[in-house]
Specification:
The structure is a homotetramer of 174-residue chains. Chain A is built from 7 helices and 8 strands; from the N terminus they run αβββαβαβαβαβαβα. Chain A is an alpha/beta fold. A 6-stranded parallel β-sheet of chain A has the order 5-4-1-6-7-8, with helices on both faces. In chain A, strand 2 and strand 3 form a beta hairpin. In chain A, helix 1 crosses helix 7. Chain A is globular. The interface between B and C is medium-sized, with 22 and 25 residues.
Chain lengths: 174, 174, 174, 174
């Protein structure tokens, strides 16, 4: 509860330069990979996120990143159907990516679920994770969401942002 | 509890012109989309709904609508296997669709799960949503069902209607 | 609790002629159907059931039935991988199937999950259903199992039978 | 709680020769098999395990075994994407496999989920199972984990090992 309030206060303070970075596997998906005998062939994406991403993206910079090179074409197809572009970044590169955004005075809100997301979370202005993220990630994140990966994480982030933009003129139509 | 009673009372009052409109993704499915590297390739439909839809459809007009143009062929295949036809309607068009039915003196019962369903819900005579619909949708709906999307939502609606038709001659065989 | 005891007592009383009939969709699967744009293409079968079916089948007649004509080839593949054969029976035929076994003095234990299984359940000596069966089915069944469809229903039935065969010489190796 | 403590103490006592053996179906997957009309075509692997396996494997011998001959190519693809090799062992052979490792003075930690894993568990130094393993397996295992199959079982084992290596010089970088 306190964590939620603190998250909202920090977000409100930097609404004008807030920038959202979403990890994809385990956040937009439930983290499972479907294999056949040729390798990784499918991923399951969840409800509500496409709608929510468009709503956030109309007012804030929004990035989708993935470290999964083998499944990149699958991921890219989904993210492009949502109207965005997926960026392939190794666990190491994602921290650099966040740091560069921070240096451009963006207030990065990073959403990730796995151990390799922790450095990027630490470099971000704010961090959040799905309800089924790994324990160490939940400890590290500023906010552990109530939605599991692939069940509408982007949509929950949208609700939080919507709450924070209330009464702010610039975001009247958010 | 009170919401359920009120829903049943309102439904009983208009049984003779009740018309059911079901959104498909997130209602007949759990809202997930299966992607491979060619795009959206599969959807998962749930148990009990086909049986229940036939039972409802034998006594009431029943429509299945979807806004998902990319996955329309998948959706249509399932709905036609169930003995119905899916109608492709943008979020905007679905409100118009409901309003036109209402103008024909139909008492539309609309079942949807996402933010873009809210206008259609507001235009309907009654609205319901799956147990895992978005929070704002649950607030808006006259009734939040106890079944999650893709786990038998149509079947739960069938049970409610069955309860409401008890003792009504015309529906003795429902 | 009482229901479990009564189920076990009735099963013990007729162990020598017990015959198991399992519905497949919603029992061996979680009831979901995976569709692509050519129709119903895949089903998800669960853990533990193959192992358990072999153990039951070594001592008791065991039948797997399905009403799903469209997905029959998928179902047959799985059941034959388990070492059995799936029988295609319409909802109506399945009651006849149970009745004929009963006339041959078999004590049919029927496991099903949907409304159309109710007549067959009523004709059987004993009936059970998965924990996520439809409400009316749970009311009708002699026993509502604690396992959901596709999560090891056959395995739970195996445990119950194993408990009932304790101390019975003929089943010492069950 | 007591079980966890005892498991940790036993693991600490033999850290130098600890060897991990993971069953695959029901442990790295949720145990479901996806069938089409040609047979078993797909499996769903979960989040966090690949990352965790690499971390464990950098310090300890780590084996992945499976009894599923029909789905072996699927399984092998996934395990090799994780940087390991799957070994095909019948239920009987897996006990022998564990016993041979034990004879080489390895302290085998065996993680399995099904009835046929019990003999191997009994031969191992320590055994654990996912939270959704069969009841008899949970009774037999030294530790029943809090993670379900396919939801990060290897990752939970990694956390336990990490806890046990704290303060041990050799594992400072674990």
């Amino acid at each position: 509860m306190l964590k939620t309030l603190r998250f909202q206060m920090k977000l409100k303070a930097k609404l004008d330069c807030a920038t959202f970075v979403f990890d994809i596997d385990g956040v937009l998906t439930d983290g499972t990979f479907i294999y056949d005998d040729t390798g990784k062939v499918m991923k399951r994406f969840g409800p509500h996120d496409s709608e929510a991403a468009k709503l956030i993206g109309a007012f804030f910079p929004l990035h989708f990143i993935t470290a999964d090179a083998r499944g990149f074409n699958i991921t890219q197809k989904r993210v492009s159907d949502m109207g965005f572009e997926a960026i392939l970044l190794s666990p190491r590169e994602r921290q650099v990516f966040v740091e560069e955004l921070m240096l451009q005075n963006k207030a990065v809100v990073f959403i990730g679920d796995s151990l390799s997301d922790i450095p990027a979370m630490q470099s971000a202005y704010l961090s959040a994770c799905p309800s089924d993220a790994m324990k160490d990630v939940k400890k590290e994140a500023n906010l552990s969401l109530s939605t599991a990966g692939g069940r509408g994480v982007v949509a929950e982030v949208y609700s939080i942002v919507k709450y924070c933009t209330r009464g702010v003129n610039r975001f009247a139509k958010f």
